[in-house]
Design goal:
- The chain is an alpha/beta fold.
- It has three domains: 89 residues, Probable tRNA modification gtpase trme, domain 1 (Gyrase A, domain 2, 2-Layer Sandwich); 140 residues, Up-down Bundle (Four Helix Bundle (Hemerythrin (Met), subunit A)); 169 residues, 3-Layer(aba) Sandwich (Rossmann fold), CATH 3.40.50.
- The chain is built from 16 helices and ten strands.
- The chain has a six-stranded mixed beta sheet, sandwiched between helices. Strands 1-4-3-2 form a four-stranded antiparallel beta sheet.
- Strand 9, helix 12 and strand 10 form a beta-alpha-beta unit.
- Helix 7 runs antiparallel to helix 14.
- It is flat, with a radius of gyration of 30 Å.
- It starts with a strand and ends in a 6-residue tail after the last helix.
- The protein binds guanosine-5'-triphosphate and magnesium ion.
- Magnesium ion binds next to helix 9.
- Magnesium ion (MG) binds next to helix 9.
Length: 445
């Protein structure tokens, strides 16, 4: 099916023109079926359905008419051109949603959530967007912003009328409000990092020396025999990728060749790839074999992990250590390595008996999210940036009050904070920002 829709006053006169066979009584929100014709030629175009939704009870808040026809591009093009001839104009990208925002059917964060729903690439990202569509973010931000605006008005009045020092109780009150705003912004920013991981997923590199059970663990995590497993060291020669969802986090999971000091050319190239994979990973799963006594064998892998642990990484790389083959007689003491690498999680596992695999999944999920899943996750990058700006401005305002900075300077920061929060709800946006946001929408949304 294909839907052509119109919004605005013409939406109530179009139905009679396009469906002349139907009685002209078009009740709002009732779907009707009939012969759709081209009013200029009287030629039938399609057997279609139409529905009128009278404003303000429509998506845009204006009168809306929708034509549900067969999905043939020819039919759709015809219907669009008929509407244009009847006096409509083509919608700009996102214009329906923009009108919904301008007519206060949606706040700005909800309008953007529409785009996030359309664009979601992961189930978790979709979940976040749908949640935002309900308006929870504005519900939280709006009262705090209104308090700030009130504080601002008060401060400006003080600047204008008071020559003497500000009474201390005003200071305390203002500071209390600024701190309350900061707590909310902090709470929302805490979950922002998780928003990115849930929207975009994380990369997981499974590394270690040869034969420790990396491929077996990859298969156990996936629940399928994806990677070849043999008792021969050096089985995995190249990186092997698969997607895996753990606690809502989509992982790009990569099994790698064992990292070892080697003179073999092919094996050496595999080791290079393993190190490159390690470099790009958000979460590293280092596997050790508990059943063999020699920790030295793990040295090249440990050194490679150690070197990337010291590098900065945009999401803060996390390390999970799997002490594998825990079903066999334990011969290895991993304590010195744990002390040296300081992994975020240590899990004992048996990839053969499937012991500890659930713990491993838990550890990986927490490692990617940087802890337990937050209740309030802001997934939209623009909102995150606005929250960060609000945070900086609130901090400056609090510091200003503590230092006895003149109120007119402090009020400048409070205004900036209220402005940044208003950019999320849409209460303080200019046309340029709206243009930028809705430009990304597709036409018709
Ligand atoms: N008993 C026991 N054997 C295991 C376990 N995990 C892996 N193995 C065995 O160890 C051998 C090597 O396993 P792989 O998964 O191929 O190890 P790998 O680390 O991928 O090895 P390379 O690809 O050669 O670097 C196989 O014979 C596995 O069956 C485990 O937890 N317990
Ligand atoms: Mg392998």
């Amino acid at each position: 099916m294909g839907i052509v829709r119109t919004s605005g006053p013409l939406s109530t006169s179009l139905p009679e023109k396009l469906f002349p066979d139907l009685t002209p009584a078009w009740n709002s929100h009732h779907l009707r079926q009939g012969q759709l014709i081209d009013p200029t030629t009287r030629e039938p175009v399609d057997q279609a359905m139409g529905v009128v939704m009278l404003g303000p009870h429509s998506y845009t808040g204006e009168h809306v008419f929708e034509i549900h026809c067969h999905g043939s591009p020819l039919v759709l093009e015809r219907v669009v051109s008929i509407c244009l001839r009847a006096g409509c104009r083509a919608a700009r990208p996102g214009e329906f949603t923009l009108r919904a925002f301008l007519n206060e059917r949606l706040d700005l964060s909800q309008a953007e959530a529409v785009l996030d729903v359309v664009r979601a690439r992961t189930n978790a990202g979709l979940q976040l967007a749908v949640r935002q569509l309900s308006g929870w973010l504005t519900e939280r931000i709006q009262p705090v912003r209104h308090e700030l605006v009130g504080t601002l008005a008060h401060m400006e009045a003080m600047v204008d009328f008071v020559e003497d020092d500000i009474p201390p109780e005003t200071d305390a009150h203002t500071r209390g409000q600024l701190e309350a705003a900061m707590r909310l912004v902090d709470l929302l920013l805490d979950g922002a990092e998780q928003g990115i991981v849930l929207r975009e997923g994380a990369t997981l590199a499974i590394v270690g020396s040869p034969n420790v059970g990396k491929s077996s663990i990859m298969n156990a995590l996936l629940g399928m025999e994806r990677s070849i497993v043999t008792p021969i060291a050096g089985t995995t020669r190249d990186t092997i990728e698969e997607t895996l969802e753990v606690r809502g986090v989509p992982f790009r999971t990569i099994d790698t060749a064992g990292i070892t000091a080697t003179h073999d050319v092919v094996e050496g190239l595999g080791v290079e790839r393993s190190k490159k994979t390690l470099d790009d990973a958000d979460v590293v799963l280092l596997v050790l074999d508990l059943s063999r006594p020699l920790l030295d064998l793990d040295e090249p892998a440990a050194a490679a992990v150690e070197s990337i642990r010291n590098q900065t990484h945009e999401r803060g790389r996390r390390l999970v250590l799997a002490l594998n083959k825990a079903d066999l007689k334990e011969q290895l003491d991993p304590t010195p390595l744990i002390a040296r690498l300081q992994p975020d999680f240590v899990v004992r596992s048996s990839a053969v008996e499937l012991d500890g695999i659930a713990d491993l999944r838990n550890a990986l999920g927490q490692a990617a999210l940087g802890g337990e899943r937050h209740d309030f996750v802001v997934g939209n990058v623009r909102h995150q940036a606005a929250l960060r700006r609000a945070r900086t401005a609130l901090e400056a305002a609090c510091a200003g009050i503590a230092d006895g900075t003149p109120l007119d300077l402090v009020s400048f920061d409070v205004r900036a904070a209220a402005g940044a929060l208003g950019e999320i709800t849409g209460e303080s946006v200019d046309d340029e920002l709206l243009d930028r946001i809705f430009r990304d929408f597709c036409i018709g949304k």
